[in-house]
Amino acid sequence: MKTVVFTIASKNYFAYVRTLMKSLEDSNPHMDRYVVVVDELDDEFIALPRNFVLLELSRLDLPHPKCFQFRYDIMEFNTAVKPFAIRKLFEQYDRVIYLDPDIYVYQRLLPVENALDSGNNFVFTPHFNGLLRMMVCTQVKWILCSREYIIWVLLLLINVLIHWRWYRGGLISWNINV
Question: pTM score, two decimals?
């Protein structure tokens, strides 16, 4: 199966991006690597050597891209383009894996690959993996420390139920800023 791992970042985050992509090249060389860049790219930036493919906003088929960019601050804009990038990458790949740019991959992503190969449509891995930490959180603290986890579980359910349409439409029409 053809697999791609991608991340999304602004140019100011590219030290993290390069570290992530190098770790993927070392640990998962069989996977293609893409980076969605939400900034406008100049020739100097495009000419920099890299071990990944740049995926520019113009290739994501964003509806009304300038309006779309105007609705979000830069951090939220990075998140808002994610479903469009996933859809674009699924045109070429059987498996699409998203990783935040501030992650370092130490070994092959075999558990993720196995889960996808065994029929799972999605594999969700939260930023933290310590059961003890989760157990000692109070209920309110748990909600606060797992905000992103809860949001992505909800988005995952939305995707499963209605194939990203509501989410993409909401990003365009309602300026969802979580």
Answer: 0.73
